[in-house]
Here is the input.
Amino acid sequence: MPINLLEKTDDELVHLYFKGDHDAFAVLMSRHQDKVYTYIYLLVRNRQLAEDLFQDTFIKVVTSIKQQRYADNGKFVAWVNRIAHNLIIDYFRREQGENTLSHTDFDYDVFNNVRLSDSTVEEEMVREQLMCNVARMIDFLPDTQQEVVRMRFYEDLSFKEIADKTGVSINTALGRMRYALINMRKMAEENNMVLNI
Here is the structure.
């Protein structure tokens, strides 16, 4: 993979992918897949479902880019998470077998659930709560994994920036993040942890 692709912004990579550079999309995926998967997993709390929705999300991302439905605004991850968010709502809608849900019809109303609210203020509150819950598990990770997770999720650094700051290769930084997420998922499952919102 050409090293200069790793230095491109998300918007530049999207543009290159639209022009036919598949390596550009591979860089986008490796740059954001852990963050997007974690976002989905923390909402649905089911590994298989999260993996399915993750795949669906990136299929939709590819389709949307090819149809020129991505606006270059420097917020690629927010855009991808919005796609994931909508797919999660669609999934729950299908599961209930109704086009619309009302809290008077069901004990659990996905549309009144703060986790899936369209409100920017509420989403930010939810994000902060999720980060608090994740922080509890981060403390149990090995130091090198803690460092990468904190830089990625709390400082919003790119993997290149993390690699530079920690003096390791980008692949090592990616590997540490991958193992951190695996360990955190394992901790949540083994301890029956519920990431309450």
Q: What stands out?
A: Residues 98-115 have pLDDT under 50 and may be disordered.
